[in-house]
Amino acid sequence: MSHITYGRTLEVTKDAMGAAIAAYEEDRNEDYCVKVYSDFSEPDDIPVPLLFRDEKDMPEIETLALDHCKGKILDVGAGAGSHALALQKRGKDVTAMDISSLAVETMNKRGVQNVIQGDIYAYDGPKFNTLLMLMNGIGLVGTLDGLGEFLVKAKNFIHKDGQIIFDSSDIIHLFEDEDGSYLIDLTAEYYGQIQYWMEFGDLKGDKFDWLYVSYPVLEEYAAVAGYKVNLIHVGDLNHYLVSLTLIND
Fold it and tell me: Span of the secretion signal (predicted)?
């Protein structure tokens, strides 16, 4: 079992998700939830046991993603490590990465064999064949500008024949009016750019930017960055899974 650190990690006193993951690993309280706030909707809850699910309990879009993983795999934003563990059980060569030291400690306890603690933007180690970013993991880029920058940066992380696998959603349905029209300010920032913050117990995290990108917009940004978009699956409410591969000259 290895543990390497790259770049920054979250402050433990502001790491609500990491604290929830560590607490559930300790006492398995099925009632634990992370409270999620945003700048556009009512607060929501993430049941912490959901982050510890086995492959048999994962939705189709996630098992399809696992099916498409190949070669050396980096699970970015791995959280409690459920996807990494599922890949390990399949005999895959997978490394899990998270910016939360509490999540990393939990993954080590759960038996994830290869773990990186830190920020994907600071990674400068060996390249991978697959970057896996599930549960809308691409959202960590924050904005459309951030998406373009990340796709360029990601070329440093994958081999020329490598891929980036992730899911995202077009959240335009959240802006639909009763008459079927959409209440979107076309002069404002892209509607899929959201600010979130989280709480677990008395612990409150800082606000952070998160991106939900529609499939057509993703295609535009991917093409500019030199990627082909391969659509794997489309689910309910415009939730989709893709694999991005480099367009090599």
Answer: none
